[in-house]
Amino acid sequence: MSAIEITKEFIEELTSHIDNEQMEDLSPILEKLFPQDIAEIFDDLNLDQAVYLASLLDDQKRVDVLTELEPEVKLKFLRGYSSDDIANTFFALMDSDDAADILNSIESEKSKEILRKLTDKEHSKNIASLLKFPENTAGSLMAKELIRVKLHWTVKQCTEEIRKQAEDVSNVFTAYVVDDYEELVGLVSLKKILLSPESTQVEKIYRDNVISENTYASGEEVASTMQKYDLVALPIVDAFGRLVGTITFDDVLDYVKDEAEKDYQMLSGISESVESTDSIWLNTRARLPWLIVGLAGGIASSLVIGNFEAELQKYVQLALFMPLIMAMAGNVGVQSSSIMVQGLANNSIDSKKIYGKLGKELAVAILNGLVCSLLLMGYGFISGNSKEIMMTVSLALLTVILLAAVVGTIVPLILDRLKIDAAIATGPFITTSNDLLGLFLYFLIGSLILG
Amino acid sequence: MSAIEITKEFIEELTSHIDNEQMEDLSPILEKLFPQDIAEIFDDLNLDQAVYLASLLDDQKRVDVLTELEPEVKLKFLRGYSSDDIANTFFALMDSDDAADILNSIESEKSKEILRKLTDKEHSKNIASLLKFPENTAGSLMAKELIRVKLHWTVKQCTEEIRKQAEDVSNVFTAYVVDDYEELVGLVSLKKILLSPESTQVEKIYRDNVISENTYASGEEVASTMQKYDLVALPIVDAFGRLVGTITFDDVLDYVKDEAEKDYQMLSGISESVESTDSIWLNTRARLPWLIVGLAGGIASSLVIGNFEAELQKYVQLALFMPLIMAMAGNVGVQSSSIMVQGLANNSIDSKKIYGKLGKELAVAILNGLVCSLLLMGYGFISGNSKEIMMTVSLALLTVILLAAVVGTIVPLILDRLKIDAAIATGPFITTSNDLLGLFLYFLIGSLILG
Predict the structure, then answer these.
(1) Residues B245 and B300 in one domain
(2) CB 3.0–4.6 Å: which of A427, B269, B301, B444 could bond B290 by disulfide?
């Protein structure tokens, strides 16, 4: 772990040093902190404090801190600098993908100005070229910085190239081999370069079986390829097979975590990505849509039950077991749908094998339904409730579990076939529709048995 | 992407080649496939077919395929080999952490035999040393293979050491610097070694500010440190600060994904990690516990409502809105609890700031509650339901939303303080308790208003 732990007291001490501009106290502390730690501290500083603290850092560390800031903090912090400063003190030392991320979140007028001011025209062009890719494609996730070597080069030439690029490419793990048309043909690990004699040709030591993705591949495809093949970096090629960038493991780790959070929130009935630290307004807005779906479902339920008011009047005990039917319909539906959604996300389900999956989910549902119905009958026997009521509830329970499993299985598969993200079929959506269906069946069976 | 796509037809062709032992057809195909692809193919082979196919691979590739197999397939496949074979054809070429994983999942008698048969005693000792760490600690996740250099060495000596270790350490990104007591004092990147003159001393080029974790750190701590600092590998030290192993990015990527899946399944009410491809029996067993919780909750609900049977008899319309109250209590509870659980997992919530969080969740709940209650009143107005009933339902709805938010917020925080995984407080657990509470409040308010 880092040598310094960032506590509330530590931040208080630091801000008092900042407010008194005690550079001689701050510098030794800053030296020991990693960019990620300083970025964390920035969360608690105002703009003036942050700009002063940043002025004490060396150029590269200042850029690394900026890259690590949370999106909102990053934009706030950058307001302390002119377009010229942003271009030539920050962007000049920043990887193209991190710079493009920033440009994507500010007004396009200011973006253009920053790119114009950047004196390293090559770098400016690289950053601009990333802006054209749609969000969540490999093109938008990749960085242009990489080590590119030629098939006919010697190891010595490779080392020279790495030395030349060393400033721009912070993490070097692999050199990518291209032919005379810039097409990606293979790779050489840094280890191989280090251990081979200087005069060896790349041709002799490179691996020609290289995994790559196209610029238009989705973030999911990139993540699953890198995870499957344990890649520290994935080369990205254009439609002609020419090497145009790489995506590194840290980007993918962040991506996997973000996606998992999104799915989790979908299942919880939260429509936008929010954190507990976000504002009350944002938290309200993210949750309200699903609550209104739930409300509409509740009103629809009242209409369904309204049709059976006569039966309810006669057998008021039926009302007692409505919650049980609803809860079980909801639980079974969420279980089935989330298993499907995860399977689809992992590519372990082929949406064409729909009948097989359905059969299996039905078998599981029959087993679970029988166990639960028998337990309920057992309870009915010792509880002294009316036998007819308990018969009705148990039979309805079995039916509802079966139907909820079918709905929970089929809906995600259908959505997937329609190329809609199946994750929306989890959580409140499936619960609400199963509530409706479950209650209807319950009262239908009730009216048939109890007459 | 890989040159060959693995389709059903491809596997059929391959198995027919295997059954006819057509080595000359198989070898060129196998050469083009990555170990991960061959591992995928193994899923569809029987033991004889798998052993035959494995016999066509070179030693290192055979080991890489084994490492990539799914746990059950791996154990099944190893049954085709003697302890001696497992030790000296597989383990000899395998990273210590992968070997330890296998030993952890077979009988301890057979484990000991394999370790005894392994002729590389140093490697055998390394593997055995990993077995003593409890599951899900850094010690159990790390591999012993790493490049270790001394402070007073020259770059040339480092290169020699890397050459010596090159066979054992497949992915080299960094060399770790230790002092004479084997304590970790810093690191040198491979890039630095490559670009520095041979006579340079490690002392002159190493970075002394190195992030590490202890062997007893949890998997979560390891993952969050590596993610925060974008580390491709994390060195692990023992209680005396001595370097004992490393954890690499691919292990962490798998870990993060597995953990996310576990949380997702917890929220869906699935108690064990299952996939849609697992057996019917496993799928049933994983889901039944939460269904029984739901069943018990349903029975408890019937008892709660039973207390209000007289009111229900008098105002049967009250029954119509029970689903609405339950659905909303459940949805709000799941939303609040999942936001808390995610915040706790990301360390963005300090469980000591409990009052602040609670205040915020309450504010969000009041906003959402008011909107939903007003919408419901509006519906009541146009629907022609009895005014008293709609007043009761709307008031109960507001109360229930508030209370569900409180329960959803507090329960995970309390569990976290008690060092219990807060994720169990999501899904069916929170839904069931909120159902009970919601219904009780609903009928209580109903009996007060309607008399």
Answers:
(1) no
(2) B269
How many residues comprise chain A?
451
Per DSSP, B207 falls in state: B
User: Are A116 and A180 in a shared domain?
Assistant: no
Binning chain B into helix, strand and coil, the percentages to the nearest 5 are: 65, 10, 25
Q: Which of A138, A162, A182 is the last residue of a domain?
A: A138
Domain co-membership, B398 together with B351:
yes
Task: Please report, in tens digits, the pLDDT of each residue of chain B (451 residues total).
Answer: 545 677 888 888 889 999 988 888 888 889 889 999 999 899 889 999 999 999 999 999 999 999 999 888 899 999 989 999 999 999 999 999 999 999 988 888 899 999 999 999 999 999 999 999 998 899 999 999 899 999 999 999 999 998 888 777 777 889 999 999 999 999 999 889 988 999 999 999 999 889 999 999 988 889 989 988 989 999 999 999 999 999 998 888 888 888 888 888 777 777 666 666 677 888 788 888 888 888 888 888 888 888 888 888 888 888 999 999 988 888 888 888 888 887 777 666 665 566 777 888 888 889 999 999 999 999 988 887 888 889 899 999 999 999 999 988 888 888 888 877 777 777 777 888 888 889 999 999 988 888 7
| Residue with the two structure tokens 């890198």 | A226
**Domain interval for residue B180:** 148-256
Q: Long-range CB contacts (< 8 A, 24+ apart) of B240-244?
A: B240/B183, B241/B183, B241/B184, B242/B178, B242/B181, B242/B182, B242/B183, B242/B184, B243/B146, B243/B148, B243/B176, B243/B178, B243/B182, B243/B183, B243/B184, B243/B212, B244/B139, B244/B142, B244/B144, B244/B215
| Beta-carbon count within 10 A of A240 CB | 9
Contacts of B270 in chain A (CB under 8 A): 335, 338-339
Is residue A46 within 8 A of residue A19, CB to CB? The reply is: no
User: Using CB atoms and an 8 Å cut-off, which of residues 203-232 of chain A contact chain B?
Assistant: 209, 211-213, 225-230, 232
Chain B residue closest to A311 (CA)?
B316
Q: Is B34 in contact with A295 (Cβ distance < 8 A)?
A: no
Alpha helices (H) along B206-307: 219-228, 249-268, 280-306
Boundary (domain end) residue, out of A224, A248, A272:
A248
B295 closest CB neighbour out of A225, A227, A372: A372
3-state SS class at B1:
coil
Pairing between β-strand A148-150 and β-strand A174-178 as defined by DSSP bridges? parallel
Whether the CB-CB separation of B175 and A191 falls below 8 Å is answered with no
Domain assignment present for residue B2? The answer is no
Domain count across chain B: 3
Q: Which residues of B touch A232 (CB under 8 A)?
A: 171, 173, 232, 249
